[in-house]
Design brief:
Distance between the termini: 41 Å
Radius of gyration: 26 Å
Largest sheet: 8 strands, mixed
Helix content: 25-40%
Number of helices: 13
Strand order of the largest sheet: 7-11-12-19-18-17-14-13
Strand content: 25-35%
Structural class: alpha+beta
């Protein structure tokens, strides 16, 4: 009885009879021969059907196979340097599981709207599979990085009673008799768990009700967020640098085939080595103004400003010490320049913008209580958060990285809509 084999393992079964289950990517006939490209989610393989070597009825039935028909084939694996992946399958038996209707997505130009309406089918394309396999590798690398450094994974709530990043970007929902919000970040809860475990990270979906149509924004995205007790801004700048270097190296090591499918210029990724260039916010403003930007001191960066800055470097750029006035209430002030926050953003090269944001948190009770009042946030809602500053408070710091922006950068994509299986955008809730 032949073994059922994944195409990712096909090289281990050369000259052996195997069984493959999958879908038809392409089908063509040439007289008494038929050629199938079969995909099984793990790889692709060309299968050859010869009329001389098969049951006549099976051979005839196979001639009607359509794109995405599901099949089970039995045959002998044969090495062939000319074949994609270096192997072919000489088929002796075929079982058609389902004969697919005409597939809506064909090898021709389709509009973005059409492809997004058919996202559930577009996922089967070679390009989308390459992107999402790289996403999988990035997610695994994130976990490995923190796990190997003795961080503890903490699952933070998705329903929250208050805002983290700003009250204007909250998705509100009903939580029985109370109002609740979909989380913008796990950071505040991470600060509590860091006080218990020292080094923690959370990894999950986050939600921002930003009415933005840019190529960088989704309403629902995944974020990995480490938080470290007894850490200050320089510590998390170094951590972020090591983190990004490791992720890029992992993708280069494990996903060369997928990068080829995407025609990614890997020399751009190979340049991501330590140390990263670093600029203060004030130095960045000077550079932007010299490059013709109308930005003024105190303004936050727009997408074009981030692109101007990042285009000066071949590797990620760390910008630090932004004005406190444009940063969140929990950011610690620079003791030497109190109008500046001990925070940092990491800007990806090639115009991909901010992929990491973080910094040092306020750890003094009175200072945090004052900040809450300044930002007109309820002290009652943040009572538990203030408690962290009453019982063994220490300097602590962390950051967050949005997975989708990192995937877009590493894959060289034009838009984040391709970085997640089912993107949620301003006007996109289907499928």
């Amino acid at each position: 009885m032949p073994s059922i084999v994944s195409l990712s393992k096909i090289a281990e079964f050369n000259e052996q009879e195997v069984k493959i289950r999958g879908w038809v990517r392409r089908h063509r006939s040439k007289g008494k021969l038929q050629f199938l490209t079969i995909r099984d989610g793990a790889g692709e393989l060309q299968a050859i059907l010869s009329k001389a070597d098969m049951d006549e009825e099976q051979f005839k039935a196979a001639s009607h196979l359509t794109q995405e028909s599901s099949i089970e084939v039995t045959g002998t694996v044969r090495a062939d340097e000319r074949a994609p992946g270096g192997y072919e399958l000489d088929v002796s038996h075929i079982r058609i599981i389902h004969l697919a209707e005409e597939f809506p997505i064909q090898p021709k130009e389709h509009g973005t709207g059409f492809l997004m309406d058919h996202r559930h089918l577009w996922l089967r394309s070679s390009r989308q599979q390459a992107i999402l396999k790289i996403r999988h590798e990035i997610v695994k690398a994130c976990r490995d990085f923190f796990d190997d450094r003795d961080f503890v994974l903490m699952d933070t709530p998705i329903f929250t009673p208050n805002a983290c990043e700003g009250t204007t970007t909250l998705f509100q929902t009903q939580y029985f008799e109370e109002k609740a919000f979909l989380t913008q970040s796990g950071q505040l809860y991470n600060e509590a768990t860091a006080a218990a475990f020292g080094k923690v990270y959370c990894f999950g979906p986050t939600f921002r009700a930003e009415k933005s149509k840019t190529r960088r924004h989704l309403m629902e995205f995944w974020m990995v967020e480490p938080e470290v007790a007894f850490a200050e801004l320089p510590d998390v700048m170094e951590l972020a640098e090591d983190f990004l270097v490791m992720i890029v190296q992992r993708v280069l090591e494990k996903r060369q085939e997928e990068l080829k499918v995407l025609e990614r210029d890997v020399s751009k990724l190979e340049a991501v080595t330590p140390p990263f260039p670093r600029l203060t916010y004030r130095e960045s403003i000077e550079r932007l103004q010299k490059n013709g930007s109308a930005i003024q001191g105190g303004d936050d960066f727009g997408a074009e400003d981030e692109t101007i800055l990042s285009n000066e470097h071949q590797k990620p750029l760390i910008v630090h010490r932004y004005p406190s006035a444009i940063k969140a209430f929990y950011m610690e002030a620079d003791p030497e320049q109190p109008d500046l926050a001990l925070c940092m953003d990491v800007l990806a090269p090639e115009g991909y913008g901010e992929i990491i944001g973080g910094g040092q948190r306020v750890h003094d009770y009175e200072k945090l209580a004052s900040r809450l009042k300044e930002h007109q946030l309820s002290e009652d809602a943040f009572k538990w958060y203030l408690d962290l500053r009453r019982y063994g408070s220490v300097p602590h710091a962390g950051f967050g990285m949005g997975i989708e922006r990192a995937v877009a950068w590493i894959c060289g994509l034009d838009h984040v809509r391709e970085t997640i299986p089912f993107p949620r955008m301003l006007n996109r809730l289907y499928p």
